[in-house]
Amino acid sequence: MRSQPKEAARRKVTTLRLQEMKEQGERIAALTAYDWLMARLLDESGIDLILVGDSAAMVFCGHDTTISMTMPQMLYHASVVARAAKRALVVGDLPFMSYQLSEEEALKNAGAFMKEALVEAVKLEGGESVCPTVRRIVDAGIPVMGHLGLTPQSIHKFGTYKTRGVERGEAEQLLRDAKALQDAGAFAVVLEKIPAELAREVTKSLRIPTVGIGAGPDCDGQILVSHDLLGLFTRFRPRFVRRYAELGKAMQDAFRQYTADVKGATFPNAAESYWQGEEEAGESSGAT
Predict the structure, then answer these.
(1) Which one of 194, 211, 231, 260 has the largest count of C-beta atoms within 10 Å of its C-beta?
(2) 44 catalytic residue (yes or no)
(3) pLDDT of 19-56, one tens digit each?
(4) pTM for this predicted structure
């Protein structure tokens, strides 16, 4: 693929820009973030889309599923991420039961993401059944990203994390759902853990971009949970996760060495201490 011109690499990513990327054959790179530092590093690295995912429940809070996340929790994480991101499009994940009760409740919560957290779009799970809600939110001026395939908020309904859309009937329904989301005004659709052939068919059939996670190489973009990619979250590792680093092990090694240095009285040393009468160079406080 052609390298991006410097102007394109610096250009603010919007929903319109994502559409242009699909039309021009430029892949969309997306990752998750839940805190300011991670979001800043992602943004400065050229990531196109940052999802403040309800996956925070698992990799940030230690829960077994995403279901426990609340609107106040998601708004907090989203506001911190949005403060850090200057170029990437920031999308907030509407948590479980924040959009299922009614269209008005969904609009209220989507609006809170935009008005209080200052994200630029929201994401929700579901197909044809949520399209009236998608349309209501979009009509109010709030961009919506869909999510099909393995939808984590429905894990207790599925009863398993197995690949979705394998059976013909479910595959055909997923294709209908994707087109329905597009018609309802969604600007993009996440396709999670579905056969690569089905993801290719959905991608070709839609005008809007698809962003895959465990959906093969033919989506318009890819997304992973940053903590998986970095080797920070190690409780399980899906096949679709490529580890680009093993930071969990590196951090544990550093923490163990620090503990050993403190207990062995080798930290701090003279150069890492302050002495009466010496002039201090300007530095920020490291106090907790």
Answers:
(1) 211
(2) no
(3) 999 999 999 999 999 999 999 999 999 999 999 999 99
(4) 0.90
